[in-house]
Amino acid sequence: MMKLCALLSTLSLAAFAAVHAADASKPNIIFIYADDLGWGDVSCHHAEPWVKTPNIDRMASEGIDFAQFNVLSPVCSPSRVATMTGRFPSRYGINNVFNSQTLGPKQSGTMPDWLDPRAPMLPRFLKAAGYHTAHFGKWHMGADPRLAPDAPEMAAYGIDESKVYHGPGPGIDQHKIGIEAAEAIERMKNKQPFFMNVWLHESHTRHFPTQESMEQFKDLDPRQQVYAAVLREADLNVGRVLDALKITGIDQNTIVLFSSDNGPAGAPVAAGDRTPGPDDGDMKKGFDVFHSVGSAGGLRGRKGTLYEGGVRTPFIVRWPGHIPAGIKNDTTAFSAVDLLPTLCAAAGLKLPADYQGDGENLLASFHGKPIRRSKPLFWKHYVVAKRGDAWPAWAMRDGDWKLLMDESGQRLELYDLAKDRAETSNLSQDNAETVARMKAQLLDWIATLPKSPDPACVSQDHATAEPKTTKPTTTQRTTPEQRAQAFARWDANHDEQLTLDEYKAGLKGQDDLEARFKRFDHNGDGKLTGEEFTKPTAK
Asked: Is 412 in the same domain as 313?
């Protein structure tokens, strides 16, 4: 089935390829995508004095820094889908992270096991127009290939060469992505034009900063030290890419874009509010989300929320000799779905007539013009909570207005982002007409979304698997691996801790859950770390 899909995709672009033969004058394109790096996690945004990212700052000083860039999900898998397809990820039922332990509709009513390879793909369009295409780093637009062996290969999405993690094919050391990318640039200088994804690990947990990076920040608070060191690792990878372009002499013919898939993970709390875990400070085991003290740069919310702190991330574009240098664009509401049409336009490509995208060609903004988008943006996030900022299930932006709505459609908030980027003043009561109009548009959009996954995008192993309804007996012993899988499924907000509510939701219907939870909770802080849950000991 997957081979057939790949063949159909290739044939459907044959005419497109014939019109656009390879042309050395076309710009190379490199898209660097960080993981969980917040809007304030680059030093040129001046959010935290201890953040130092000189290479990313260099990009901004030599290009354009967009202050209003939105990804289309507050978590990574759907966010990445939007960048590559130019379409809202909910159109494919992808509203959450592809989790290797919870395939398909177990995650949500519509979740497939991988992105449909028949979806329009930026690398496939560029490949058909003569580009050599490559991907280095995280993929995560499908389930773990070990559990979904019939998932598509990278070639089905238009990728010529790849080394990935959370994806099919040859693997990559997640801490050597920048080195691999730099070496690939050296190889590809004779394969111009080329398109390359460089999708970094930083600043996702677990954190594995080098001792050298830790030494750079030894005078900081221990948590800031770890996070600043991790940001340095991300910044070094950006520098490796920029240096490789300079060394190979193709710097001026290459567009480099830098962004992040969602806002910062975790929630900054005082160190005394949490008892350190058993591997805090252990360089070999890495550092957990307690050390994720990233900055949303004054924006409300973080990863996993539809407020701007979860979906507004850095976006810097550098193209020496072609776009202005040192410009900050505060007005253009650029988004992830705009990347495909904009980059195809930069490459001089006309999109196929049957392409139906959600983004706009905003190439003029690369040349310093304050373009206003005309299309609205829509968001769906599957993991919601009744407390805090994680309650919105849906969101919409139209112009400067942003509407947030809960799953029931009863709770609504409205913000004017031009005047209130931090979303502090809910204007819904004073703008009933705007709320009604936007809610109606949002509901109309929701009605177009799939109600169930496409069977072609569901693993046959999963589709034929019998549901496991039996409860373990006292003679059955759960392995640490099984506990780790359960922990990943139940950690609804992906903060690498289980609350009692999350634990109860995961074991819905079972008895004595509070007492069982307390037996795991060794330090009595009301939350379970992965260490506590996977390696229980008697209290």
From this structure: no
Are the C-beta atoms of 175 and 208 separated by less than 8 Å? yes
Q: Distance between CA 462 and CA 147 in Å, rounded?
A: 8
CA dist 109 → 93, 113, 534 (Å): 8, 12, 28
Instruction: Pull the structure tokens for residue 163.
Output: 């080394």
What is the average pLDDT across 476-486?
A: 55
Contacts 24+ apart (CB under 8 A), 414-420: 414/438, 417/68, 417/308
> What pLDDT sits at residue 146?
76
Q: If we measure between CA atoms, which residue out of 500, 498, 476 comes closest to residue 487?
A: 498
Q: Domains in the chain: how many in total? A: 3
Reference 69, options 58, 83, 55; nearest CA is 83
Residue 72 counted as domain residue: yes
Question: Angle of helix 177-188 relative to helix 222-248, nearest 10 degrees?
Answer: 10
The residues with which 1 forms a beta bridge, in sequence order, are none
Q: Are 96 and 383 in contact (CB under 8 A)?
A: yes
502 with 415, same domain: the answer is no
pTM confidence score:
0.81
Q: Could you count the other beta carbons within 10 Å of the beta carbon of residue 273?
A: 9
Q: Which of 237, 244, 212 is nearest to 225 (CA)?
A: 212
Pair 268, 401 in one domain = no
DSSP string, 464-510: TPPP--PPPPTT----HHHHHHHHHHH-TT-SSEEEHHHHHHHTTT-
pLDDT at 531: 74
Tell me, what amino acid is at 483? R
- The DSSP letter of residue 271 is G
Residue with tokens 């769906």: 380
User: Residue 348 domain-assigned?
Assistant: yes
**φ, ψ for residue 74, nearest 5 deg:** -90, 10
Pairing of strands 28-34, 254-260: parallel
State how far the Cα of 36 lies from the Cα of 294, in Å rounded to an integer: 8
Q: What is the pLDDT of residues 132-163, one digit of tens each?
A: 999 999 999 998 777 788 889 999 999 999 99
Residue in 83, 92, 30, 133 with CA at minimum distance from that of residue 359: 83
Per 3-state DSSP, the chain is made up of helix, strand and coil in percentages (nearest 5) of: 35, 15, 50
Return d(Cα 266, Cα 207) in angstroms, integer: 13
Which range marks the domain in which residue 434 is found? 392-447
